[in-house]
Design brief:
With 294 residues, the protein is mainly beta. It is built from 2 helices and 24 strands. Strands 8-9-10-11-24-20-19-14-17 form a 9-stranded antiparallel sheet. Strands 5-13-22-21-18-15-16 form a 7-stranded antiparallel sheet, with helices on one face. A 4-stranded antiparallel sheet has the order 1-2-3-4, with no helix packed on it.
Amino acid sequence: MSRVTLKAGNSVVTLAPDVGGGISELVLAGHDILLRERNVEADDADPRNLGEFPMGPWVNRISNGRFAWQGREICVAEGPGHDPQGLHGIGWRRSWSIADRSDTEASLGITWHGGAGWPFPFRLTRRFILEPHGLKIQARLTNLGSQPMPSAIGFHPYFLTRGAVIRAKTSAGWVTDPMGLPAYLGLEDVAARMRSGVVIADEPLDNCFVGWDGVVVIDWPTHALTMRTEPALRYLQVYSPVGGDRFCIEPQSAIPDAFNRDPATSGVCVLPPGADLGAILHLNVTPAVWTQVR
């Protein structure tokens, strides 16, 4: 099983090309940033054990694993993983190739030629650039087919819950149905609290927030992490299970189940042949900026 390790000062990132092109370890300026799930039912070859993985060519869930597209039904549940809701797309289910690497940079990619679960050919690439106090991930999805392709991309990092306070500017969040899919917009009170800072252990969530400005600050007692997307992605999925030791802050270009929703409000991008959808995630660590949240 291959691993790619990049180093810059006291920062280290270990990539897992064979396991979804994700990150198995990230230390920035001596601080552990990403928390692996370490699921007792999974091994190191399971993407659920990554600290971060890519989402694409769609994000999160798709209702019943199906959507209608230009007069045909697409069943993503038949694709890699055979997940009933096609969770998180195809990228994290595939082995990635290493395009190039140096001591501090590496590029990984996959090419999908079309097949069960997703008839649209595409290429998904990620370039990792490590610095002494930060990591930059450049993600790009390209339509390799001859037809327009519905598209969305995102990042799925896990962080340590204990002691974490998160701050993010959003306007509202989608209340979910029993299947974890968006039902209606609300959660304005949660969005307001998040703007001033919430102790994530006290805020059980599995919701997509809208009106996001593309920046999140996570404060721990010993250090702080600023997440920033470029261009600013407008949708922020927050997953913080009750009693869990980890939580997710997931920048996304669309909401869950976007392909079954109104494109005007879902964020779905329709890529013409040869076009691409890209985003950069910046992760930068600084000394603690601890403020007690009441």
